[in-house]
From TrEMBL:
Key words of the record: Antibiotic resistance, ATP-binding, Cell membrane, Membrane, Nucleotide-binding, Transmembrane, Transmembrane helix, Transport
Family as reported in the entry's similarity comment: Belongs to the ABC transporter superfamily. Macrolide exporter (TC 3.A.1.122) family.
Entry keyword Transport: yes
GO cellular component: membrane protein complex; plasma membrane
Protein name: Putative ABC transport system ATP-binding protein
Gene3D superfamilies reported for this sequence: P-loop containing nucleotide triphosphate hydrolases (3.40.50.300)
UniProt-listed GO biological process terms: lipoprotein localization to outer membrane; protein localization to outer membrane; response to antibiotic
Entry keyword annotation includes Transmembrane helix: yes
InterPro entries for this protein: AAA+_ATPase, ABC_transporter-like_ATP-bd, ABC_transporter-like_CS, ABC_transpr_LolD-like, MacB-like_ATP-bd, P-loop_NTPase
One matching Pfam family: ABC_tran
Residues covered by the ABC transporter domain: 10-240
GO molecular function: ATP binding; ATP hydrolysis activity; transmembrane transporter activity
Superkingdom assignment: Bacteria
């Protein structure tokens, strides 16, 4: 039976993030109301300085709002201890970064294994699951390569495999295509979309590239720290 009372994956009410720069207070985000459900594929877009990274950091529980409330899976983050917040982050959230952030001395396979090993999984299990993930992103033939031997698009695919290895409910990707050419950017977005759809994971990625917006289900536009438009462009998939 459908569970009608399941809370949204993320719920933001009047969220603000203010930075104090000497005497001056800067509102990087102000009054953001947002509900994100399981299985959504969302682009956060807007010009430089509009608050995309700040929002990604809040959604990924890397940072906390200075006003308003944010709940992850129904649990208000304001009531989470630092320890609890990092537990939730490690268990339920994967990250993809603009500059890939792979460990240069490790192979693609070892990079993808890392989150499982940090979580205490036996090496054999981690190795098998990482191999499966790399195959899923089309890199079965590149598992032994170190990042320097991979193209930017391939490195980002390794990073996606790494973000997914713990089967997170949410993947937050801050400008994942900023260092890629258009062909690779489209490939990365399509890959995230396909995997999100297949596994019911929620993907939120930020971009300033409007050409990518046609490939998402929902477009959240930021300007000067405010959500100025929130468009559902494809039916929400949710998770059955
Ligand atoms: N740690 C910080 N300290 C002070 N101000 C900050 C900090 N982080 C961000 N800001 C400011 O907050 C505003 C929003 O920044 P943010 O990085 O979220 O925007 P963005 O849309 O991601 O920009 P970009 O596309 O250039 O990455 C900007 O004015 C920025 O200068």
């Amino acid at each position: 039976m459908l569970n009608q009372i399941q809370p949204p994956l993320l719920e933001l009410r009047g969220v603000g993030k203010q930075y104090q720069l000497g005497e001056v207070a800067l509102d990087a985000l102000a009054g953001v109301d947002l509900r994100i459900e399981r299985g959504e594929f969302i682009a956060v877009w807007g010009p430089s300085g509009s608050g995309k990274s700040t929002l990604c950091n809040l959604l990924g529980l890397l940072d906390t709002p200075t006003s308003g409330s944010l709940a992850f899976d129904g649990e208000p983050t304001a009531r989470m201890s630092d320890r609890r917040r990092s537990d939730v982050r490690n268990r339920a959230i994967g990250f993809v970064f603009q500059s890939f952030n792979l460990v240069p001395v490790l192979s693609a396979l070892e990079n993808v294994m890392l989150p499982l090993q940090i979580g205490g999984a036996p090496e054999r299990t981690a190795r098998a699951e990482a191999a499966e993930r790399l195959a899923q992103v089309g890199l079965a033939a590149h598992m032994a390569h170190r990042p320097a031997r991979l193209s930017g698009g391939q490195q980002q695919r390794v990073a996606i495999a790494r973000a997914l290895i713990t089967r997170p409910a949410l993947v937050v990707a801050d400008e994942p295509t900023a260092n890629l050419d258009t062909e690779n950017a489209v490939m990365i977005i399509e890959l995230m979309r396909r995997i999100g759809r297949h596994e019911g994971a929620t993907f939120v990625f930020s971009t300033h590239d409007e050409r990518l917006l046609g490939r998402v289900d929902r477009q959240l536009q930021l300007r000067d720290g405010r959500a100025v438009s929130d468009r559902q462009v494809a039916p929400a998939r949710g998770v059955s």
